[in-house]
Amino acid sequence: MTAADSPWLELAPGHPFGVDNLPYGVFSTPGTAPRVGVRIGDQVLDAGACAEQAGMESGEVWLTPSLNAFLAQGRQAWSAARHWLQEQLTNERRRDCVEQHLLPAESVTLHLPLEVADYVDFYASEQHATNVGRIFRPGAEPLTPNWRHLPIGYHGRAGTVVVSGTDIVRPTGQRKAPEEPAPTFGPSIRLDIEAELGFVVGDATRLGDRVAVDDAGDHLFGAVLLNDWSARDIQAWEYVPLGPFLGKSFATSVSAWVVTMDALEAARVGLPGQDPQPLPYLRGEHPPYGLDVHVEVELNGTVVSRPEYRDLYWSPAQMLAHLSVNGASVRAGDLFGSGTISGRERQTRGSLLELSWNGTEPVTLSDGATRSFLEDGDTVVLHAWAPGPGGVRIGFGEVSGTVVPAR
Ligand code: CA
C-alpha cells in the first residue's frame, strides 16, 4: 500500500507519515481533553471520534489520555486496528467521515503518548559498550565478560520519561574526578545525550511467567526515538558497583509518535552476528532480527552524528525475553531503551562522550562553536526513518529537548 492508494489525502510522494506508517500519539486541542491520535501526512486523525462515528466500538480505547488501554488489548487488536485505519484512510466511501476528524498537525498539542509503567535501559551496542569501557576503565578489557552472553540493562525511572519538546533542567549532584581527593557537589559539568530507540510493550504477562523470544512479537507494540540524557560526571562517580542511578534518572525524552512494529516490518534485517551463540532462551526457532533505522543527531542545528540502528548486537525480542526470563511480569506501557546506538566510525557515535572522546576531541558546530558536553541553552534533536514497503519511508518524527540552567 502506498500514499498513491489514497489520492484524496493529497500526501506528497514519499511522505514519512504515509498510510504504511500510521504512528499513534496522544494529542489535545485548546479546550479538549487529551486523546489518542494517528498521524497521517501533515494531519492528525482523531481516531476515537472517527471510530465512534463509524460504529467501531473497540475504538473506545482511543478516547482515553494515553495509549495504555489500547496497549493492553494485545497483538490481534493492534493488527485489526491497523487494517481498519488503513481502510478508512484509503477507501473513497469513508472519506466524508474521516475528513471531519482530521486536524492540521501544527494545530494540536502533543503529550506523552503512554503512561510509562516500568522503564528499563539496555546497552545493546557493542561499539558503544566498547567505547565507554575504554573511556571509563582505561587499561582494562573494554567489554565485561558477561556482555556477549546477555543483554545488559538497568531499571530506570519511569516517572521522569518526558515527551519531545520538554525542557531539560541541568541536574545537580555529586562528582569526583579520579585525580581529585574528595567529591564535590554542584550542577553537572558533563551533561550528555544518548541516541536510542525505545520499545513500547503491551499485553501483560502474569508474575512468574516469562516471554519466550519467539513470542516477543505479541508484546512488542512499537518504537519511539529516545534520548537518555546522561550526566557523565555524576554517573562516573556513582555507578560502581550497582550501575547508573542519578546520572540518568533526572529525564529521558521520547518522541511523541509511536511507530508500530507492523510499520517496521520492511525494515527488519539480520543482526550483525552473535559470537558466542547465546543460550537457548535467547535463540528461539526464528532468527532474531534487527531494524534498519537511520538516526540523525542534531545539536543546535548541526548534524553531529548519524548512528545506524542495524549495528546493534542484541535484537528487541532478545531484550524482552531477557528482561522477563526471571519471571518478572510485563504490563501495558512498559518501555525499554536499546542503549546508545554507536557504530565504528566517529560520525556514527550516539553520544557526546564518544564523539568528543571524553572531551579530548571537541565537536565543531556549523557556527564555529565547539562542544564536548552540553551547555545551557543547547538544543538536541534526534530524527529517524526506516525503509517501508515499496521504497517509502517510515518516519519517526523527532525527539527534541533544550537544556535549561540547574535550579
Ligand atoms: Ca542509555
Overview of this protein structure:
This protein has 407 residues and is an alpha+beta fold. The protein has two domains: 3-111, Fumarylacetoacetase, N-terminal domain (SH3 type barrels, Roll), CATH 2.30.30; 119-404, Fumarylacetoacetate hydrolase, domain 2 (Alpha-Beta Complex), CATH 3.90.850.10. The protein has eight helices and 26 strands. The strands form seven sheets. Strands 6, 7, 8, 13, 14, 16, 17 and 22 form an eight-stranded mixed sheet that branches. A five-stranded antiparallel sheet has the order 4-3-2-1-5. A five-stranded mixed sheet has the order 9-26-25-20-21, with no helix packed on it. A hairpin with a 2-residue loop joins strand 20 (294-299) and strand 21. It starts with 23 loop residues before the first strand and ends with a strand. The model has no long low-confidence stretch (mean pLDDT 96). Bound molecules: calcium ion. Residues 121, 194, 196, 228, 337, 339-340 line the site of calcium ion.
| Gap from first CA to last CA | 50 Å
Helix share bin: 10-25%
Characterize the main sheet.
8 strands, mixed
Bound molecules: calcium ion
The overall pLDDT, averaged over residues, is: 96
- Would you identify the CATH architecture of the largest domain? Alpha-Beta Complex
> In angstroms, what is the radius of gyration?
21 Å
Number of strands: 26
Question: How many separate domains?
Answer: 2
Q: What is the molecular shape?
A: globular
Structural class: alpha+beta
This entry's quaternary arrangement is single chain
The count of helical stretches stands at: 8
CATH homologous superfamily of the largest domain?
Fumarylacetoacetase-like, C-terminal domain
- As residue ranges, the low-confidence spans are none
What is the beta-strand fraction? 25-35%
CATH hierarchy, class of the largest domain: Alpha Beta
Examine the coordinates and then state which fold CATH places here, giving the name of the CATH topology of the largest domain.
Answer: Fumarylacetoacetate hydrolase, domain 2
